[in-house]
From TrEMBL:
Protein name per its UniProtKB record: Uncharacterized protein
Record field: transmembrane: 39-62, 74-94, 316-337
UniProt keyword list: Membrane, Transmembrane, Transmembrane helix
Lineage: Bacteria, Bacillati, Actinomycetota, Actinomycetes, Micrococcales
Organism of derivation: Conyzicola nivalis
């Protein structure tokens, strides 16, 4: 542990030790887990559901008019499938609660704070600015008022798309010492921002030096090109390729937000250490580059109106969601009055 109370990144076996029922009970008690989200409530619901299914099948089999031998085989097969299904559900329930306990252990070991769920709207970043009751999960953050070389940061997992099967992604946001213009570094290997519905108006692209342009696309507001290159220097981009080759970066509202195209698996000691390594490598570098930044177009500590946000355009999905209901309504009205 460092003097500030936050450890340096490094693997630990705290997340790999055995999880017991008392560990889960302690986690629920400390975090005030709602009754409906407790493992034993979920287990009771599953048991009642399966018992109801069994009762219905037991009542229906005699009605089918099968002979005794077929009836025994059908009931035996159903019993085997039900037992396997019950075992699978029990394993999934325990796996999920055990993962939360392991993340909490790793957070405590590293002097951090863990929260199973938090509203997504409370975080910085374009990809997390989503309508509806969206939640971030497996939230790990630096304790309030305690800052080490990694700085003030929060890591979490979130849904990056919409529809029936949205994919999950992750982010880590790190507080900067100064506010900066809204600058985005897209990554052809990740595309988290694009998949989350963030579309930026063309013409805001700024070419990077060397081979960095093959992987990354730098976007900045008009008139802030020199500012963007002042922050994203070749040595910063070299750090990006070293510790975050599959990340997208957004500077917004005094935060650096690094998006990862896959969910964090913070219950694994190795993945937890990798997240901390990203924070400790990228955070200090970003703060060093922005510590003396100021927008000459505005008072100290304030970003000019044009620089606060990149210009956005609606995605194709958003346009379709708006146009389709209107088109259907027009077709319906026309059909009512047509001869």
């Amino acid at each position: 542990m460092t003097g500030s109370g936050v450890s340096r990144p490094g693997a630990t076996d705290a997340g790999d030790s055995t999880v017991r029922l008392r560990d889960v009970a302690r986690l629920d008690r400390e975090h005030g887990t709602p009754l409906g989200q407790r493992w034993w409530v979920t287990s009771v619901v599953v048991v009642v559901y399966i018992a109801t299914m069994v009762a219905v099948i037991v009542l229906l089999i005699p009605v089918a008019g099968l002979d005794d031998e077929v009836e025994r085989r059908v009931f035996g097969g159903f019993s085997v499938v039900t037992a396997a299904y019950t075992g699978l559900l029990a394993w999934l329930i325990w796996r999920n609660v055990a993962r939360r306990v392991r993340i909490d252990r790793l957070a405590v070991t590293n002097g951090l704070v863990y929260s199973p769920r938090e509203p997504l709207g409370g975080f910085a970043g374009t990809a997390t600015d989503r309508p509806g009751n969206q939640m971030a999960t497996d939230v790990v953050s630096s304790p309030s008022g305690v800052v080490d070389e990694g700085g003030d940061f929060t890591a979490a997992t979130f849904r990056r798309g919409s529809g029936l099967h949205p994919r999950r992604a992750a982010f880590v946001q790190m507080r900067l010492d100064r506010a900066t213009p809204h600058i985005v570094l897209l990554n052809r290997r990740s595309r988290v921002l694009g998949a989350s519905g963030s579309r930026f108006v063309s013409g805001q692209r700024l070419r990077l030096e060397g081979d960095f342009d093959r992987t990354f696309t730098l976007l900045c507001p008009a008139g802030y090109e020199r500012d963007a290159l002042y922050i994203f220097t070749p040595d910063v981009m070299a750090v990006m390729l070293d510790v975050a080759p599959d990340c997208e970066i957004e500077l917004v509202d005094g935060w650096l937000v690094a998006y990862v195209g896959r969910p964090w698996r913070l219950w694994r000691s190795r993945d937890f250490a990798a997240m901390l390594s990203l924070v400790h490598a990228l955070g200090p570098k970003a703060r060093s580059q922005t510590r003396r930044y100021r927008d000459d177009r505005a008072p100290i500590g304030i970003i000019g109106g044009v620089g606060r946000r990149l210009r956005m355009r609606p995605s194709a999905g958003a346009l379709i969601s708006l146009v389709a209901p209107v088109a259907l309504g027009v077709v319906g009205v026309v059909s009512l009055f047509s001869p």
